[in-house]
Structure formats: structure tokens, C-alpha cells
Amino acid sequence: MTATSTTRAVMAPGQQCCTFWVDGLFLGVPVEQVQEVLRYQRMTAVPRAPQAVHGLINLRGQIVTALDLRCRLGLPPRPEGELPANVIVRSRGEVVSLLVDDIGDVIDIAGAELQPTPANLPGSIQDVVRGVMPLDGSILLVVDADRAVDVSTAPETPAPALSPAIATNTTPGGTP
Amino acid sequence: MNDDAEIIQEFLVESHENLDHLDRDLVELERSPGSRELLSSVFRTIHTIKGTSGFLAFHRLESLTHVGENLLSQLRDGKMTMDVEVTHVLLSMVDTVRALLEGVERNGLDTDPTVDVDVVVAALQRVLDGEAAPAPVAELTPEPEPVVELTPEPEPEVVEDRLPLVAAEPAAAPAPAPAVAEEPADGTEKRGVVDSSVRVDIELLDSLVQLVGELVLTRNQILQRAEASDDIELVRAAQRLNLVASELQEDVMRTRMQPMAQVWSKMPRIVRDLAHQLGREVELEMEGHDTELDRSLLEALKGPLAHLVRNALDHGLEPRDVRVAAGKSPAGRLHLRAYHESGQVVVEIDDDGAGIDPVKIGEAAVSRGVITREAFARMEPREVLDLIFRAGFSTAAAVTNVSGRGVGMDVVRTNIERIGGSVDILSTVGAGTTCRVRIPLTLAIIPALVVAEGGERYAIPQANLVELVRLEGQDLRDSVETLAGAPVLRLRGRLLPLVSLGETLTGQRPETDALTVVVVQADDIRFGLCVAEVHDTQEIVVKPIGRQLKALPVYAGATIMGDGQVALILDVGGIARVRALTPTEFTDTSTVSADVGSQALLVLEVANGRRAALPLTAVSRLEEFDSSRIERSGSSEVVQYRDGILRLLRLAPAIGLQDTPGEREQISVVVHEENGRRVGIVIDRVLDVVDEAIVTTDVGRRAGVLGSAVVQDRVTDLVDLDAVVRPLELIS
């Protein structure tokens, strides 16, 4: 990652991170970008949507897209029966929910140094994580919320195949 | 620095408002040049802008308004009088001020090099020097003597403006603090800012609307719980909550409403400028300033309305000499009217000009290849008028600066239809034209049919719905066939392409032994959308969906259902595109249909009090003829009708009933048109038009009757129009 220096500038004002776990990874988003954290919400599925889009939730009357971070990061799907939690982030004027396994604490990262993401991490993680912070007893992966909510680069499975198009010109008698 | 930015912001907001008033006042002034009130009010506005721009170091703005103020003070003090020339330079000053303010809004500077201040200053100075005793620049008092009789702005719709005469600057004070400080000796209020109201950020309003929506949903849940509870106190509290929440919702929705006056206030200036440019004399009348509608709609309406007004002046109203020669008053009348009607806002633009000549329109359309001569010959005058909404159509004899470039009415119609409205035109040659625009009160709420597929609910906008058809068992096997893998439905003799919603969404076609088909129409495409379940019709609030889903053509948005869950709104046109359906001309001659469904029916009386119904879509018009006009041609009864012969068909015998005995003076006729052929169906009288879900039964099925249904609590025969009309076609 080449963005280390600029990243630090962005991180400077708050220096606090809202943390969570996804498939055993300890991740965080700067608190300035986090609107709120919610337990599991019922979701409406969106057929034909990119795979990372898990559904839509009703957040006080606002319709919010929920993205599965496991899918976005290219990690295996969440085991059956485990309900994800919502980390609601603001990105480019929109509110988006990131679905995570578990919510952690808000931690103070003042003084910790943001290091480039180790080069041997999978590309799908490199794509979303802007750097890592080795802390006591754990390594925090700092997520770039703008990149996380951008599903145009997310790992994708092909869209459902449709049967051949239906022709409408079969109306007998033609047009009157 | 931040403080400065905020002050500039306030200054901009206030100045823009004031400038709108100015435009109106100046035009008004031209008419009543002696009005000291108007002059003082104009003077104060310019003075305020000058003061604040000086304070904020906008020097170009200051120097411009400074000269303008000089001129105004001369006028106010009676040393000069208003005339066209003076009005002109003052208006151009207002325009320049506006342009400078736009520059300030863009980058915080009034140094925009494209705005030429000096020319305007020179023009102002010339007027000053030319007519009045030269006003020495030093003597310029920014200090109008306190005017006692000031009734600022006697516009009828802003009553509030009059009130705060004495109460100097109460509520409006927090906003433009520096401006207030700059004009201490004025002694009167700054005008324009309505003192009894507070400016609120639009985003805050939107967020209030959202929060109230959420509150209403929560209230619904609590009410449900409370009903099941024995706790009397809880029940009472829930009922109070219910009332308060409902009222709150109503009031909050009202905050988004804005009066039509916002658009009307700009009209005098537009009309004045155009009238000068085109050399017309125009009496402008406006009505319905307080007609309210949602602000987003108001915004979207501005452009189309300005265009229609321009058209009325350019194509409608004739020049003075032509009017006089035609025996009309020399000044043309332009009447703008806004009012509420059955949940819609109607805006009318009415002129007493030359009207639109259908013959000219038709000729132009033919010569431009928009339609063929044969098609034109068959068209009703009304249809001909509709041609002006076709793209690339313009009949202005000369292409003027104002209109006539051929990009007009089609854009107006497109823009109005985009916000769910419609526009139509009525015109009488020689007497004038009326344009009627209808728009919904609010964009956000639309009626929709809720269906279910794969365990999720989806909403289909009512605007796309045609009818519902349910097929089971033998019916299903009889009427659905597969052509090259594509399922089609035989519906009243026509083949309707079927699209499975489940397959469109998930790629898998669900197996069913019954089929529920929602017949939908988008643009020129009609198809049957097969869904698993049909719920009910409800009013839904349209909400946007996130960026991640914008690329999906099959959704138009999303909404929140009564239980708080999100449901997606289907985009019927998008589904057609995804399934690569190509448009075909599907002129539907539908008769009465199906097992379930709602459709508009014309209910009528035949055979001495028997009720029958026709689908409204089959009715092209209703007519009354004197019985004396009935003539005979061969074995048929006919009347002369619109340059042709209309064959009459008595409905009662055609559906196996006795015609009402006795001769009448007048006969009622339903004109039905199909494949370019007209037939007049003679009935006793029209009872009503209903739009309700009907359940057809086989009871009463016979030749010419599809069956019966209960319509408006009465058993009604559903006429099989095809069967009734067919014999006529055989003999003709």
C-alpha cells in the first residue's frame, strides 16, 4: 500500500477506531465514519444484486443497503444460524451497513503506527484494508469504508442465467 | 473565516429573495410610476444589498448598487419619473446584481470577469445625468428619510409583510446580523423576509419527514401490543400517542409544501420582458398564489411553465394591430391559474390569442413527415392538437428568439410526465388556447399493487397496471402455450408474452399449477408478469436505494411496508429491457375480463332499467343525438357524424333484451371505435363510471354477454363487445 502517509493524515483528528470481528480477523473503521452500530436487523433480499449485497434494512425510515464484509473480503460465508451485526458507516453521502460477525470496542489508536498491509494477504483483503496496526496482543486491520462499500470491484459470482428472451412479435394478425 | 462564510451565505439567501421582490416591484412600478411605497421598498432592498456588500468588501457589487441607489433616490424624491428606459436600466442592474451574486456563491468573490459591471453603471449614470439635475456623487445619502406611510409591498398574498411595520426586526434578526448593523437609521424593517417564519434547512425538513415516518411505524407496533393488553393506562397512552403521531405526521408533511406564489412571483418579469421583446401588449392575471405543492415538484414545474408562458406569448397572443383588426382588445390577456382538484394540482395557462388551427398543425405534420396524409384525415381535431407534443415539431412560421426551434412541447410533456403529471391542450381557433397541467400533490407517495415472489414482497406502481388474470387447471392448459420456449397467454384473442417474475429475479422458473398474471404496460410494451401471490393495493412512500443497486434496471426504488420491512418497487420498463422484450403496437380492444381485477367500467341502463357495463377503454366518446337525425341505410340505422356516417347498433336486442318501448326525442350513444371503424351503440342512458374490482360469474352468460358481476351492489351484465359488434362487420 502506498497510501500510508495520506492515511495518517486522515486518521489524525479522531484517532479512535470502532472495531469488529469478521471470520477471526480484527478490523476497525475510524469512528468519524461510523454512524452507529446495531444488532441483527431483518433484511429484504435483493435478487440480481451484486453478491456482496446481503439485503436492505429499514433504518428509521431510511433504506440502507447491507453489505456482507465476509463476502466483500473474499472470506468464507458465515456459518448457518449465526446472525451478523450491523456497522453503519457513512461513505460519500450515503449510509451503508457493513455486516460483521461481532462488534468490538471503540479503541484509542493515538500513537499507534499504521503500517502497510502485509503483501501476502489475499488481494480481496488488500483491496479493502488501508493498513494494519500491530497492537498489544492483536493486529488491527484498518478498513477503508469508501472502498468497502464499493462493490464494483468485489469478488463476484456470475449473475443468474436467464432463459432465452421472449419474442413478442408472435402476435398473430400483426398490428391493426 | 467560518463566520465570514456563514455571513456570506445568509447574505446570498436574503439577497436572492429580495431580488425576486424587486423584479415584481419594478414591473409594478412601470404601471403606477408615482407609487412612493413601491419606490421606497425598491430603494431599501438595493440599499441593504449595497450596505452588506460594502461590509463584506464586494466592491464591484457595492459600486453598482451605489449608482442604482442614486437613481432610485432621485425617483423616490420625485426628481425623476419612471419610464420604460428607466425601468430597463433598473432591471438590467438587478440582473447584473444577480450575476455577481452567483459569482459570490461559486467562489466567494464578486470579481467574475464575464459580468460587465461598468456598462450597466454607465447606463445608470447616463439616465441619471440625462434627465435629472446631475447628482453629485458625494451628496449621495444612503439615508432615506424615515417614511411614515410605508406600507411595504402591497402584494395581496403576503399579508405578513404588513404586520411588522412597527416591530422593528424581531424574528428575522438572527440571520443577517451585519446587514442590520449597517442600516441603523432606516427605522423600518428590512422587507421580504417574512417575519413570522423561520428559515429551515431543507435537509432538516427531509430528516424530520423520515423520523416521523419511523415514529408512525413504531406507533403501529405499540398500538398492536396495547390492543392485546389489559393495562388500561397503556391503552389510553397508546391512543393519545396515536392521535399525536397522526397530527404530527400531517403537519410535518405540510412543511414540505410550498405555495405556487414562488413560481407566480417570477412571472410578471418574464412576461414583461417577453412582451417587450415580441412587441405584444399583455395583461397578466394570476390566481391561486397559495395553492401548495411539494417543493420538489414546484421546482420541477418551473421550467415547463415558463416554456408554456413563452409559447402563449409567442404563438398565442397576436400583435396589437392583428388583435384590433380581429375586433379584440389591443392587449392580449394571459391568465395563469393554479388550484387543487381531486388530490392533484392543476395549473392552467390560458390566453385569448389566435388559438391553434388543427389544419395548420396537420399540414405541418404531414409536410414534415411526422404523420401520413391518410392518418391525418382520420384524426380527430383533439388528436391533431396532440401532435404538437411530438418531438421535432414546431409551427412557428418564423423561428424567433423566443420559441419555435422545434424543441418545445415534447420536452415540456416529458418533463411533466417525469414527475407523474400530464399536460393537455384545448384550443379554439380565433378565441384562444388553454394548456392544462396536472401534477400530483406529492411525488413521494404513489399507489401500488403489492405482490409476493420467493417470500419477498414487491410493489408494482399502479400507473403500470392494466389488469389481473388468474388461471387454474383446464383454463391454464387451454390459454397458455409455449412458442420456442417462450410462454404466451391467449387473452381475448391476442397473445400476450408472459414473463415470470421469479425467473427474472432468480433465474429459476417456479413450478405452479395456477398462474397469477399481472398484465402490465410500460411505454409501448405490454406483457404479463407471472407472480406467486397478489396482495393488495396500497399507497407507498417511494424511497431511493443505494448506489450499489443503482445499476439494477429491474428496481425503481424501495418502500417500507406497514410492518417495517423493506419492499422493492419493480421497474416494469426495466424488466422488459432485461428480458429483451421488444415493443409491439398492442392496441387493446379488451372486453371484460378475468376472474379478479379492477378495471374502469362504463355502467349504463338498457331495456327499461336493466344494467349493463362496457370497459371504459372501449368507449371513445359519448354522444346524444336527436331522434330526428336517425336515417336509414339499407337495413341499418345511421346518423351523420363528423363528416361521416355512423352506424347505430341498439344494444338491448344485441344482448337478448327487449328494447325500451316508445320513441324518445334524444338517443344516447356510446361511440366505439376499432380498427378505424366506428359504431354507435344506442343505450337508454349512462349511469356511472366505476373503477372497482369485479368478480365475473357465468350467471347470465349468453350471446353478447360475458356473464354478470356485482357492480355498485347491483347485478350488471358485462357486455361482450366483440360479439356484439362482429355481426355489423360481416354485413358492412
Automatic annotation (TrEMBL), chain A:
Residues 166-176 have a biased composition (Polar residues). SMART domains: CheW. Residues 154-176 are annotated as: Disordered. One of its GO terms (cellular component) is cytosol. Signal peptide: none annotated. PROSITE patterns: CHEW. One of its GO terms (biological process) is signal transduction. Transmembrane segments: none annotated. It holds the Pfam family CheW. Residues 14-154 form the CheW-like domain. PANTHER family: CHEMOTAXIS PROTEIN CHEW (PTHR22617:SF23), CHEMOTAXIS SENSOR HISTIDINE KINASE-RELATED (PTHR22617). This is Purine-binding chemotaxis protein CheW. It comes from Nocardioides psychrotolerans.
Automatic annotation (TrEMBL), chain B:
One of its GO terms (cellular component) is plasma membrane. Keywords: Kinase, Phosphoprotein, Transferase, Two-component regulatory system. The keyword Hydrolase does not apply. GO terms for molecular function: phosphorelay sensor kinase activity. The modification Phosphohistidine is found at residue 47. Its EC number is 2.7.13.3. Residues 445-581, 598-730 form the CheW-like domain. It catalyses: ATP + protein L-histidine = ADP + protein N-phospho-L-histidine. Its main location: membrane. Pfam families: CheW (PF01584), H-kinase_dim (PF02895), HATPase_c (PF02518), Hpt (PF01627). Gene3D superfamilies: CheA-289, Domain 4, Histidine kinase CheA-like, homodimeric domain, Histidine kinase-like ATPase, C-terminal domain, HPT domain, SH3 Domains. Residues 135-151, 170-182 have a biased composition (Low complexity). It is found in: Cell membrane. Residues 135-156, 170-193 are annotated as: Disordered. CDD domains: HATPase_CheA-like, HPT. This is histidine kinase.
